From TrEMBL:
This is Peptide/nickel transport system permease protein. InterPro entries: AAA+_ATPase, ABC_Ni/Peptide_Import, ABC_transporter-like_ATP-bd, ABC_transporter-like_CS, MetI-like, MetI-like_sf, Oligopep_ABC_C, P-loop_NTPase. One of its GO terms (biological process) is transmembrane transport. It comes from Bosea psychrotolerans. Its main location: membrane. The chain crosses the membrane at residues 38-58, 101-124, 136-157, 218-243, 263-285.
Amino acid sequence: MSLAQDMAAVPERAESTTAKPNPAWTLLRRILVQPKGAVGLTLVVLYLVLAVIGPALAPQDAFRQNFAQTLRPPSAAHWFGTDQLGRDVFSRILIGARATLGIGVGGVTVAFLIGVPLGILAAWRRGWIEAVLMRAIDVMLSFPDIVFALAVVAILGANTQNVIIAVGVVSIPVFARTARAVTLSVLAEPYIEGSVALGASPARVIMRHVLPNISGTLLTLSTLLFASTLLSASGLGFLGLGTQPPFPEWGTMLGDSRSYIRSHPYLATFPGLFLAVSALAFNLLGDALRTIYDPTSRRAARRLPMLNFLRRRTAASAPPAAGLAAAPAGPDAPVVAVEGLHLAFRTGEGLLEVVRGVDLTICAGRTLAIVGESGSGKSTLLRAIGTLANPQEVAITAGTVAIGGEPALGLPAAAVRDLRRRKIGIVFQDAASALNPVLTVGAQLAEAVRAGSRLGPQAVRQRCIALLRDVNIADPERRLEMYPHQFSGGMKQRIVIAIALAQNPELLLADEPTSALDVTIQQQILVLLREIQRKRGMAILLVTHDLNLVARFADDVAVMYAGRLVESGAIATVLEQPLHPYTQALRASAPGAGEGRGQPLRSIPGEPPLVGQLPSGCAFRPRCPRSANRAECAAQEPPERMVASRQVACVFAEEALS
Ligand SMILES: Nc1ncnc2c1ncn2[C@@H]1O[C@H](COP(=O)(O)OP(=O)(O)OP(=O)(O)O)[C@@H](O)[C@H]1O
């Protein structure tokens, strides 16, 4: 069946075509529909207007002292009365708005500019840098805000500039902690790994992917901290450590009024009221923003898509194998050569070995599928081959990996990025999280195309259009302007594939590429991958649990158990006549493996061994029907050897032939 016929056989859902409105207008609308947002935003805007045009509105000279008019109550001539020096309080409040709000803005800016980079650095580098930064922040947090601010002003001296520094320093820990937490969650998203796989530098990943995704949370935090910064600054002003006379600032005015609080209470009332309402305004606005950006407040809205997602994940496997995929012709040069690879997780108790001596090769134009139960080490192996294993987490204790003839292990970071970009493409399990939701598809494709190349904007655009055509997305010019949420699951996976193909990789890594899709779309995506592989001759390394998918799609299979490949060879050889008892059990437990309709699926008795607690000898021995306490199985780990055209690690493999 041709690709076109395959596509026609299973029509994919059309994607939503609603254009994305301007994000600023959307945000404004979402703030205004909330009563607290509407009130908060209106008040904040009024305050900001006051800060800008307040001095121009002042009816009287706010600095002129008039000892004949001291401590006058509110009247038509002095709406808010006069202070102890006979100055007009209303005019001083209007003029003081700029200094007061300026301190708030300045303080939050100082805290933001220092706290956010520190938080991102801690999340990015982890290890000792994170530990040192976070402990320092814990120490700062252990002091009450005002005490800390007082200490800073006492050291630097009392003036407006130092108040800004003091209240800013006080808020650094909150920004740093929040930035670290939200960055960690963004860094766990597959599209970050995709970007890293394209060779993007840390700075680029942070600017392009992390910052846009954490900006909502940081905006909310800035608004909330603005209120507390204002109050801290006013506290300093109240103590006489803020803006120095004769310049008015609401906190200082409040402080000056304390001697007259009983006899002339209006002196404290008006600056206090303006301060309290400003803090309330920023808090209301911050709260409205939190409602918008906090995912827990949108749980109800998400419930349906989540249910659909779970349903898709648990949907039945693909239909039974109709026949094994024909091996595509291609040159025999190995694109991947892995020899004696041992990988171990670094844990508190030392190294925990999860991949134990793997040898494999994949030639151009061929697909190798790695299958095995959950926890057998498939993903860890795939990530190490793709140079994506985090060295702080995974130790390569022995062995070599070469991609396209180039050694892939032990390289400096820049060389690893370059190798990945030139030779490796990655398709993730969940296309929805493999795409950055805040960037258009065109921007994400362009990033992949531009990585390491010097193409001009027009050439990049043409290449993006060609890539979308390659993955059979119609009307690519229009689709480039759309956002991921405007596409269906299958279309998103096509876009992820297009991104993976942007640098013409020699090797495509696919970790459960279709398990988040429903059955009909799975079929289309696999057909698409096969077609692209035929055209480009790339090697594909596929990790999956689905043996039917392996039978339809792969050329070779490697069965993994407890970190070792126990049987590997051509699909027709291994799946038609498995020799290892574990392969036999996997084959028997696959849907459509021989039982009639309504028959329960067979499961493999026993549990896979826990990492680090392997039995002596063959790791499959406790579950093996063939072992039956035979001494040979307990004596040593069976070496891999060639039996009937495949590698198999079982001392009694020949018994399956008879
Ligand atoms: N960070 C970690 N620290 C310690 N052990 C880990 C860590 N991550 C994974 N492991 C363990 O390593 C083993 C291999 O995990 P891996 O994800 O590679 O298995 P898998 O075969 O891909 O499983 P699945 O099919 O569920 O993805 C598992 O036993 C897992 O518990």
